[in-house]
């Protein structure tokens, strides 16, 4: 069996909250060794957001599996020296602080890469390194608003995606960029600096369809409704809701047959994608009237029999028990020594046909401080002196 793709890669993470934490967890699940450098006082604030047990939240656990945590006082010269030694042997340094913070701490990109030529240095910011919002604080709803995502969701008024979408998209972007830089390093021998802003990552994600009406700029374009206006309206049933994505004429024929109105496929209002688009409100109203009297499961059965892409709108509890996710073995349950029994979503990518299994669990604050310091040659007596001086904690 082949090793995981990132085995042997050493990552140093400076972060709070989601973006860098999730990015490095994906790397850890692909084999990387990740050391999370946490402030000596309270650590990553993400530990305290949402449902928790044993001093950490489920949200923190979902973004920090497979890592080692060290508690270092970076206000001290000794603490900074310890981290500098770790970075000198690392392959990747990633942070999600505002511009200039890492320079002020003594861990700026130019300095770190001057001592470690192979280092891939990843700097995540909210809005980028230039411009009027360069130093503005950034959280997911702020980016959703700034990127127009909230306006794209709401037809009457802005509606936010009720999930940390921009944080997670930025994490995936950072992870992909990092591995691309590592691949390039294998060919040229040197690392590089990578800048990623939450705003750019989120705009890149939403742009292909969300901004398709702002892509073609000539005066003679033929503007049509956004896909969101055509596809993303829930269909209400007698006892729930479902969605249908009938994108082809064959699928629309199946949809009409499932509704018991198969002759509608010949209706001049609905006999092509162009006529459906031109009569979208009437099309959607006919579908709404047909399904509102049907039982959800019966409606799904009819649609499936006609090979129409569809799904019941599931609750979170229903998703956990979904037969498809059970068949693909997407979840597992693990036992955490402090947080107890935990459900884990396994990595989506399969290597050699296998999902990566959870390695070490999310770490306690400073759980690996002593182990990591010993690994870079710091003696037991010196570790005790550092602890007494308030440079480290475990």
TrEMBL record:
Domain of life of the native organism: Bacteria
Keyword flag Transferase: yes
Entries under InterPro entries matching the protein: CoA-transferase_III_domain, CoA-Trfase_fam_III, CoA-Trfase_III_dom3_sf, CoA-Trfase_III_dom_1_sf
Keyword Disulfide bond set for record: no
Keyword annotations: Transferase
GO molecular function: CoA-transferase activity
Protein name: L-carnitine dehydratase/bile acid-inducible protein F
Lineage: Bacteria, Pseudomonadati, Pseudomonadota, Gammaproteobacteria, Cellvibrionales
